[in-house]
Structure formats: structure tokens, C-alpha cells
Amino acid sequence: MAKIKIACLPGDGIGVEVMASAKEVLQTLATVEEDLKIELVDFNWGSDHYIETGEMMPEHAIDTLKGFDAVFLGAVGNPALIPDHISLWGMLIKIRRELSLSLNIRPARVINGIQSPLHSPRKFDFIVVRENSEGEYSESGGVIHNGVNEIAVQNAIFTRQATERAMRFAFDLARKRESKVTSATKSNGIVHSMPFWDRVFQEVAKDYPDVKTESIHIDALAAFIVTKPQNFDVIVASNLFGDILTDLAGAVMGSIGIAPSANLNPDGRFPSMFEPVHGSAPDIAGQEKANPIGQIWTAALMLDHLGHLNASKRIIEAIEEVTKQGIKTADVGGAYSTREVTNAICDYLISSAQ
Ligand SMILES: NC(=O)C1=CN([C@@H]2O[C@H](COP(=O)(O)OP(=O)(O)OC[C@H]3O[C@@H](n4cnc5c(N)ncnc54)[C@H](O)[C@@H]3O)[C@@H](O)[C@H]2O)C=CC1
Ligand SMILES: CC(=O)C(=O)O
Ligand SMILES: [Mg+2]
User: Which PROSITE patterns does UniProt cross-reference here (predicted)?
Assistant: First the structure.
């Protein structure tokens, strides 16, 4: 197989630490997986770059990224120094928009060796398909007047094209799994976009008569993710609902620090981007406390997307072997550092190949 070229954007905070871990895992894997040839190219864009230059990424950044097979991102944000809407819209969301990464795929399942905080969790395995290009994440709106008269307007944009695209992806995915799609709605409170969302869901469902469907209000759905996560297979959600549900799903798995995600360019015109669900976690940055599993599992999603299914499986196997041995960071009840967990995963990749 040809060499795959990955643009690595560690970003800020623990993004830098977990990216170093995941790169080490990828490099180790490439020494034992015959077909896997990887070139990892670093770009140190992010908040430090903003402080030096006034922009999160240089002007040519998007064109540069288009020359890669995939983009691998850590996390962005240094809220003590830069307002989050500037740093995230200047990098994370800019990349999602300009590379047309209109779907965000976020799996959540029980990981061997990681205890869910739920009292007696049943085995669960679901995937959230998050619409990733519009919805509540929108630049439409503004702020006018000031003082007591100040008004902020934020418009949520729902187009038929993007809504239907996310739903069709969810139904196609469900057909390869347990054939059930749950739609996250809120048509009892949001009177225009959510009844539209429900209508498109019902229309698309007609093309998939073999797939079971249900529509659940996002508030109840959040509760059900806690009380019966085993009931879900594929959940399709708007940008904000999907964002919130997947931090919750991460927590139900055991920690937001283990949750992965793939931002897909569905027509393959541009590279897709892979990033963990979590952010830059300034509260633990620089302390060797960051769980590297979210970023490492995300590397597995990236390899899977690029056709390296075996290499991807080996990463997941290595993660679960190491967690089963109890080599875990503090967020999932362990006493090991980022480096120790990373080393253990790399060691397993080498020893299991011999
Ligand atoms: N994809 C991205 O680039 C994202 C960036 N952000 C940005 O990150 C910054 C911090 O945001 P927060 O809301 O605090 O969310 P966060 O996800 O960074 O952290 C939330 C909590 O989870 C913990 N946590 C997160 N990842 C962890 C890991 N790998 N291991 C162990 N614990 C972990 C943190 O220590 C913190 O207590 C902000 O600037 C925010 O805008 C937030 C989410 C996504
Ligand atoms: C910013 C963030 O948490 C997300 O879009 O996933
Ligand atoms: Mg998020």
C-alpha cells in the first residue's frame, strides 16, 4: 500500500501531550505492520501561534492541509489568554467548514478494563452521527445596541441538504450494525428547525423500511444515555445536540478522555479530520495526567478510514489489553501517567507482533 501522509496539528494544552502519544503509537505500529507506511508532518498552529501572529493558522493553512490524506488534530483552546470563539473558529471549526467535514462520527462503547461510572452498566455500543457543518454552530446573527438595550441574536441554520445527508449516513451505518436509528429532536420547544428535522427524518426513514426508528427529545435522550445506553445503535443529532451527547457518552464510557471522533468529508474531495472528543483541558495540562486513549483510539478511526483495517484493530486491541492490565490514568481510576500508558500500548504492539 502507498505511504499515507498525515498532517498532525497538536494544538493547545493536553492536545500536545496526547498527540505525542498517538504519534508514537502510529510510529510503533508502522514498525510491526508491514503494509503501513506513514509520514507524519507537524504543524504547530494554535493559541501560541495566535499570540505571536494574531492568527490561529497561517493564511495558506487550508490549502496545505488539502495536500494530505488525513488531518490529525489534538485540541484547540487556551481560554485564559484567548476567547474560545476566536481560537476555535480560527482553527477547529474553520478546518471543519473549509474542508467540508460535514459529518462527525463519534462511537461510544464499553472498553474492557475501564469501569463506567454507571451503577450497573449493561454492555453498550452506539455511534453518534453529528451534523457537523451548520445547525446551532452558525455565524448568522449579531449583537446590537449596548447596556440594558443590548441584544444578541444567534440563528440556527438547518438546510435540507445537510440534514438529509447526516440522516442518510446514519441509516446506511445502521444497516451495517443493529439496524436502528434514534433521532435527537426537540420539536416540543424549538418550533421551526426541529419539526423540520423530524419531517426530514420521517421522509428519509421511508427509504429504509428495514431499519427501526425512534425520535426522542434531547433532554429525555440525555437521561436515557445514562439509564439505558444499551438501547442505542446509531443516534443522529444536530451539531450542538451531538456535541453535548458525546461528552455525556464519553463520561458514561468512563471518561471524556477516552472518546474518539472522525470529522468526515463525505465525497472524499478533501481529507477528513480526526480528533478526540475532549478539549485542551487546561486544568491538567503539563502534568502528565492526560488520558491518551481518546487520541490513540482516534488514530485507529483514522487508519480504518484510510483502509488499514488490521492496523486499526491492533490499536484497539492494544488499548483494551493495557486497560485490562490496570495501566490507566487517574481519570479512569488508575495511577499511571500519560507516558506510562503510552509506553504500555507501544510495548504491547511490539510484543503481540512477535
Ligand atoms: N476539539 C477541540 O479542539 C475542543 C476544544 N475545546 C476547548 O478546550 C478548552 C477546555 O475546554 P473544557 O470545556 O474544559 O473541556 P475539556 O474537554 O478540555 O475538559 C473537560 C474536563 O475533562 C477533563 N479531560 C479532558 N480530556 C481529558 C483527558 N484526555 N484525560 C483526562 N481528563 C481529561 C479535563 O481535565 C476537564 O476537567 C476550551 O478552550 C475549549 O473551548 C473543547 C472541546 C473540544
Ligand atoms: C467545540 C466542541 O466541543 C466540538 O465542536 O466538539
Ligand atoms: Mg465538544
Answer: IDH_IMDH
